[in-house]
Amino acid sequence: MKFWVVLCCLVGSIQLQAQYSAYDWEERDDWMKTSTLLAKSGIEIGDVVADIGCHEGYLTMHLSRKVSTSGRVFAVDVRDDRLATLRENANERGLANIVTILGDYDNPKLPADSLDYVFIVDTYHEIESYEKVLGLIKKSLKRGGGIMVMEKLKDRVKGKSRDAQTSAHSLSMPYVKKELESFGFEIVDQIDNHGLWELEADKQMWVVFARKP
């Protein structure tokens, strides 16, 4: 049972110890079009947001700066070593509005009725108990709160079953839209082709934006 929660890292001049270097993070800003995604989400200074599947903190760092000192970012992952590295990265950058959460595979452990937005990047396909997790995310969101899911669809599993796609660490948009809608989320926007994940020709990114009515 696997549950990864949301996006990873930021531009900086320091060579990081874990998965990414500062250069890798800067490059990711370009191929993932991160500034476009943040703008489309509509998050603002003072918002409370969550990065589910945060890894070493790529998206967390962006979100921290976006919501500023009056906001808060809950960074969730199932591996404590990644969260430890994220805290180091945040400290190096002087970011004090990040709260790390060691989640379970089926529970992000987010506070109820507290969040303005939840981000899940290249992680949703890992969530086997997605029905339980979506229910918990919905409870964590304020009324009108939003959720963004970004995934990559690999060419070799296009048109195949959900199980076949997730086994390949991939997932298509229709499955996720249907699941979000089944939990009462309203789809407000989508990007059918957001470019290539890590610039690899067989991995097309897509994005869905939804909200809790």
**How many strand units?**
7
The main pleated sheet reads as: 7 strands, mixed
Structural class: alpha/beta
* Helicity level: 25-40%
Terminal CA distance: 30 Å
The average pLDDT is: 91
Q: Beta-sheet strand percentage?
A: 15-25%
How big is the Rg? 16 Å
Shape: globular
Describe the structure.
With 213 residues, the protein is of the alpha/beta class. It is 32% helix and 24% strand. It has seven helices and seven strands. The chain has helices spanning 22-31, 34-41, 58-67, 80-92, 130-140, 162-167, 173-182; strands at 48-52, 72-77, 98-102, 115-121, 141-154, 186-191, 203-211. Strands 3-2-1-4-5-7-6 form a seven-stranded mixed β-sheet, sandwiched between helices. β1, α3 and β2 form a beta-alpha-beta unit. The protein is globular, with a radius of gyration of 16 Å. 46% of the residues are buried.
List the helices and strands and how they pair.
Blueprint: H1 22-31, H2 34-41, E1 48-52, H3 58-67, E2 72-77, H4 80-92, E3 98-102, E4 115-121, H5 130-140, E5 141-154, H6 162-167, H7 173-182, E6 186-191, E7 203-211
Parallel strand pairs: 1-2, 1-4, 2-3, 4-5
Antiparallel strand pairs: 5-7, 6-7
